[in-house]
Specification:
mainly alpha; about 230 residues
């Protein structure tokens, strides 16, 4: 009985995974830092929560807009490259076959075999062959602005909710400490999950996210305490 060979690849996740991890990480860190900074200035719970909610709404919208604009720019560049290739295939088909042939020769094929492969792929789908082998574009890695924007906005909002809930549940006078510890735990978990989804080291993923989170909240807390003392 023949067994089907199955391989799990992680590169197909890069589009939404990058946006989702960025959104969740930014939601946790920026909102927690904001809450910690405001709490360190000796503000009351109501002021802290108002600042946190405002940060959640503004951050989610900002993440969505930023991701959409940046990934749209990438998509526009990809479309421009494909249109250029389409024109060149129409006007200089022989030159395009030679170009494809040289690509395969550099990858290790014999010149004659490389020429045959280039001709076969050109006959099958010339634009797709050049998009993949000359430009490095494929359906798997194609820019998807709406997907990136939605993933960033949703995960930012979910991440931002965690420090807000921690602030709501913390005892009076302990908001900064409870939110800080909770945010670091959430960041470590996020880093580990993201690393696991990407097939990399869970420990490394958790450590690097936690380090930058601790640094960001520490600096923000110092700024909040300083401004609270001044004003």
């Amino acid at each position: 009985m023949r067994r089907h060979h199955f391989e799990r690849h992680y590169s197909s996740r890069t589009g939404w995974l990058r946006a989702a991890v960025l959104g969740a990480n930014d939601g946790i860190l920026s909102t927690a830092s904001l809450v910690v900074g405001v709490a360190a200035s000796a503000a009351g719970r109501d002021e802290v929560l108002v600042a946190g909610v405002a940060g959640l709404v503004a951050g989610a919208l900002s993440m969505a807009a930023g991701e959409y604009v940046s990934v749209s720019s990438q998509a526009d560049a990809e479309k421009a490259d494909l249109e250029r290739e389409r024109r060149e295939l129409d006007t200089e088909p022989e030159a395009e076959i030679r170009e494809l042939t040289q690509i395969y020769v550099k990858r290790g094929l014999r010149p004659q075999l490389a020429r045959e492969v280039a001709e076969e792929l050109t006959a099958h789908d010339a634009l797709k062959a050049h998009a993949r082998d000359e430009l490095g574009l494929s359906d798997v890695h194609r820019a998807r602005p709406v997907q990136a924007a939605a993933a960033s906005a949703v995960t930012f909002a979910v991440g931002a909710l965690l420090p807000l809930l921690a602030a709501l549940a913390s005892p009076p006078g302990w908001i900064a400490e409870v939110v800080g510890v909770g945010a670091l735990a959430a960041l470590a978990t996020l880093g580990a999950l993201a690393a696991q989804a990407a097939g990399s080291s869970v420990l490394v993923g958790a450590t690097r996210v936690t380090f930058w989170g601790a640094l960001g909240m520490t600096v923000t807390a110092l700024v909040g305490r300083w401004f609270g003392a001044v004003f």
